[in-house]
Structures are given as C-alpha cells and as structure tokens.
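To: structure desk
From: M.T.
Subject: fold request, one chain
Message: Could you run this one when you get a chance? Sequence is below, nothing fancy, just the single chain.
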Amino acid sequence: MRRAGRFVLLFCLAAALVFAEGKQAGDENLQMWKWANFLVLAGALGYLMVKSLPPLFISRTAAITKDMVESQKIRQDADGRAADVERRLAAIETEIAALRAESREETNAEAGRLAEHTAAEIARIRRQAEREISDSGKTAQKDLRRLGAELAIDLAARKIRGRMTPATEDRLVRGFVRDLR
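Reply: Done. Structure tokens follow.
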C-alpha cells in the first residue's frame, strides 16, 4: 500500500512539473519536450504500477480473506460457547434443585447414622455401667461378708475369753495333751 501511495505521489509531482508554464518566449519546442518527458515518465510509472501493484493487491486480498475466515471460525466458536453457556444456565435451576435434594438426603442419612451411633454408644455405656454396678455390688457383698465374719470371730473370741476361767483353761490344755499322746 505504501508503494502505491509513493507511485501516485510521484506521478502527481511529475504531472505538476510537466504542466508548469515556462515563461520563456519562443520555446514552443520546449513545450513539446515537456509533453514527451511527461509521457515517458507516465509510461514508466504505469509499467511499474502494473508490475508491482497486482501482487500487492493479491497478497492483501489473501490476507483479508484469511482474516475473514479466521474471524468466521472465531465467531462460530464464540457462538458455540455462548449456546453452551445458555444451555447450562437453562439447566442450572434443575442442577440446583438436584443438589438441594441430594444435600437433604445426605443430611437425613447422616442424622440417621448419628442417631444409630448414639443409641449404640448409650447401650454400650449402659451395659458397662450395669457391669460396674454388679461388680461393685459383688465386691461390697464380699467386703460385708468378710466384715461380718471378722465381727463374728471377734464376738466369739470375746465370749470365749469371757467364759474362760483358769480352771477351764487347765481342763482344755489337759484334754489337748491327752489327745496328743
């Protein structure tokens, strides 16, 4: 495009020079040479333009066509993406409703699992407490029996000591010695 602009500018300058009026008297012949010079220059410029402008226009046309094809592809791609976005937006309410329903189901299932787990823990703690109470009761009964036995032995020892006289002691020792023989 720059070349074409240069050629046109050069052509206009040449034309201006050719048609400029010379103020010399009797130079009719000079006017003819100006016209001849102009025609040679115009022909050379025309030849250069015919030679260089068509490839320039062809390459420019190819570049424009390529850009148009690319822009068409980009537009089709953008239209496809826009249609996909619109389809997604149309389906988003359904997806939101499905997600809410799924969330409710998961929440209910989790609540059920927690209730089952809590009930199992309560039952386990209850069994453990009953075992501990039973073990404590057995231990208390053993302690009570031992204490009762100790008290009974202590009471019997006091009664025996209270009835024990030196004569009774002597008689018991003699009977023991006799049994040993």
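Reply (cont.): Residues 28-163 form the longest helix (136 residues). Let me know if you need anything else for the meeting.
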